[in-house]
Write a structure and sequence with these properties.
There is one protein chain. This protein is mostly helical. 51% of the residues lie in helices and 7% in strands. The protein has twelve helices and four strands; from the N terminus they run H-H-H-H-H-H-H-H-H-H-H-E-E-E-E-H. The strands form two sheets. A two-stranded antiparallel sheet has the order 1-4. Strands 2-3 form a two-stranded antiparallel sheet. A hairpin with a 6-residue loop joins strand 2 and strand 3. Helix 8 crosses helix 11. The protein is globular and about 65 Å long.
C-alpha cells in the first residue's frame, strides 16, 4: 500500500493521469500473491503498472467464457510455488502465507491439492466516487480513527470501524467476487421449498444439488430494498 500511495502522490504532483483500472488491478495482484505465496509479480514497480499483461488477461477471460483455454505458464508457476511452500523445511515460510491454515487443516485431499490452492478495489472506488455523500462519511470516519494522514493503518485499526465495514459489505453485495452459479447440497436433511409465484411447495431430497447465482440473491428486492442502490447503512 505504501508503494501504491507513493506512486499516486507522485502522479498527482506531476499532473499525470493514472489508468486506475490497471493501477488497482496491479495493487490487488501484489497483495493477493504476496499474501498467498510470499512473493509477487512486482507490477507496482513497473512504469506502466503491467498494463499490457492486464489487458492480455482481460482478453483471456473474455475468450475463456466461450471455450476452455490453457492457463499457461503463470498457473504452472504458482502450482510450483505451492509445492515449494508445502515442502519447505522453514516453518516461517509457511507461516508467512495463507497456506499455513489450509495445509494444516482437515480439508479433504481434493481441496488441499497444489492445483486447487494454486474486482473489488476498483468497484469500491467507483461506488464511493459515484456517491459523494457516502464518500464523505467514510472519509471522516477514517480521518478520526487515523489522524496522521501519512500513516498506513493496520488491519486492527480499521476492522471495527462501523461505516467503513458497512461500505466494504455493500460493495461486496453489489459486486460479488464470484458471479457464476454456486452449488449447495444438504447431505442429510430435505429442503422445503415454496414457489412464491404460484404457491406450489416442493421437497428437495437430501443429497440433491441446488444452484443459484449469487447476483440473484444479492439483488433480491425482498431482501434488499432498492437493491441496485449503494446503501452502506443497510
Amino acid at each position: 500500500m505504501a508503494k501504491l500511495l507513493h506512486r499516486m502522490e507522485a502522479a498527482g504532483k506531476a499532473g499525470e493521469i493514472l489508468p486506475m483500472h490497471y493501477v488497482l488491478k496491479a495493487c490487488t495482484s501484489e497483495v493477493i500473491t504476496k499474501y498467498a505465496f510470499g512473493d509477487s509479480f512486482h507490477f507496482l514497480d513497473e512504469e506502466d503498472y503491467a498494463t499490457p499483461y492486464m489487458k492480455a488477461t482481460d482478453v483471456y477471460h473474455l475468450f475463456n467464457h466461450a471455450l476452455p483455454l490453457p492457463l499457461g505458464c503463470k498457473r504452472q508457476m504458482w502450482i510450483e510455488q505451492v509445492e515449494d511452500i508445502r515442502n519447505s523445511s522453514n516453518p516461517e515460510q509457511v507461516k508467512s502465507t495463507i497456506f499455513e491454515g489450509v495445509l494444516n487443516s482437515k480439508l479433504p485431499e481434493e481441496e488441499n491439492s497444489n492445483a486447487r490452492l494454486a474486482h473489488e478495489a476498483h468497484a469500491a472506488l467507483y461506488q464511493l466516487l459515484a456517491n459523494p455523500a457516502e464518500f464523505r462519511k467514510v472519509k471522516a470516519e477514517l480521518a478520526e480513527a487515523i489522524p496522521d494522514p501519512g500513516q498506513i493503518p493496520s488491519f486492527s485499526q480499521v476492522e471495527n470501524l462501523p461505516y467503513f465495514s458497512a461500505v466494504v459489505q455493500e460493495v461486496l453485495r453489489i459486486h460479488p467476487g464470484i458471479v457464476s452459479r454456486l452449488p449447495r447440497v444438504s447431505p442429510e436433511l430435505p429442503i422445503d421449498y415454496k414457489n412464491k409465484r404460484n404457491g406450489e411447495e416442493y421437497v428437495i431430497p437430501p443429497g440433491t444439488p441446488t444452484i443459484m447465482t449469487i447476483q440473484i440473491a444479492h439483488m433480491n428486492p425482498e431482501a434488499f430494498e432498492d437493491p441496485y442502490e449503494f446503501r452502506p447503512q443497510r
